[in-house]
Amino acid sequence: MFITLEGPEGSGKTSHIPHLVEYLRGQGYVVFPTREPGGTSISEQIRSILHDMKNAEMHPRTETLLYQAARAQIVEQVIKPRLAAGEIVISDRYADSTIAYQGYGHRQDIEQIRALVQYATGGLVPDLTILLDLDVEIGLKRKQRGNEWNRMDAYTVEFHQRVRTGYLEMVKQQPHRWVVVNAEQPWEQVQQELRRLMEERLRGR
Ligand code: TMP
To answer: Does residue 68's CB lie within 6 angstroms of at least one atom of ligand 1?
Structure first.
């Protein structure tokens, strides 16, 4: 089973995943966590280019293609083999981030972006995608307090608002694949909801 977590900046995905993985392993599941962009040596190198504040001149099309390059590598090197071995792969972001950020955020043609994503993933679609949704300004403030501020975070608030709108639009388009969790709730409550949702899905498979 392939599960992805998505959300605007500061939604807490990254802090929730290790706890979720530990919990699910305790329940006897074989779980492999990964993240995008990243998760392989090549993809982590591409991540550094994408996030480097020095690369402020990067064009949206360059950005879009670099995310796809990082993705093609992790799909082939990690995600597909793990899924084929029967493992549960949980990814901190995946293809929907490209639709939300490069498509809605940068206002590039969504159909062209979908075609690129299809090419990069070879058509691999998650079984379940959880959107950790929250007010964009709350999320950006959370992120500013941490020390992970990167080139993407520095885009305007309006950009990040379009990203959130894009996610909510995708939920409407494919309600069977998406579940929305309110990430403005206290951390413990979000974690409980995530555990419940995943177990429900895993028991039902
Ligand atoms: P994060 O690991 O802190 O979530 O950083 C990843 C950043 O990259 C985040 O700002 C979202 C962005 N991103 C895209 O713009 N497109 C993509 O396809 C992916 C995977 C991430």
So the answer is: no
- The finding on whether 98 has its CB within 6 A of some atom of ligand 1 is yes
Output the residue whose Cα is nearest ligand 1's atom 8: 152
Q: In whole angstroms, give the CA distance from residue 119 to residue 155.
A: 27
- Predicted model pTM: 0.97
Nearest 5°: CA angle at 4, between 3 and 7? 150
For the chain, the domain total comes to 1
pLDDT tens-digit series, residues 118-135: 999 999 999 999 999 999
Ligand 1 contact, 152 CB (< 6 A): yes
Q: Which structural domain range is residue 164 located in?
A: 2-204
pLDDT score recorded for residue 68: 98
Q: Ligand 1 in contact with 166 (CB < 6 A)?
A: no
Distance CA 87, CA 31 (A): 6
Pocket test for ligand 1, best of 17, 58, 71, 93 (most atoms within 8 A of CB): 93
Q: 16 CB less than 6 Å from ligand 1?
A: no
pLDDT along the chain (205 residues), means of 10: 97 96 97 98 98 96 98 98 98 98 98 98 98 96 85 93 98 97 98 96 86
Residue among 131, 194, 199 nearest 165 (CA): 131
User: In CATH, what number is assigned to the domain containing residue 184?
Assistant: 3.40.50.300
Nearest of 131, 181, 135 to residue 160 by alpha carbon? 135
